[in-house]
Specification:
2 helices; single chain; rod-shaped
Length: 41
C-alpha cells in the first residue's frame, strides 16, 4: 500500500470514528439563555 493509500485509509477511519461519536451526543438547548428562562419559569 502506498503512503497516499495509507493516509486516505487513516483519514476515512478518523471521519467514521468522529461521526459515530457525534451521533451519541444528545444535548438539547443552549446554556447561554438559561438565566432568562429561569426567571420566566
Amino acid at each position: 500500500m502506498t503512503a497516499f493509500g495509507t493516509a486516505v485509509l487513516g483519514i476515512a477511519a478518523a471521519v467514521i470514528g468522529f461521526a459515530a461519536q457525534a451521533a451519541e451526543i444528545s444535548g438539547a438547548g443552549a446554556t447561554f439563555p438559561y438565566p432568562i428562562y429561569a426567571k420566566w419559569a
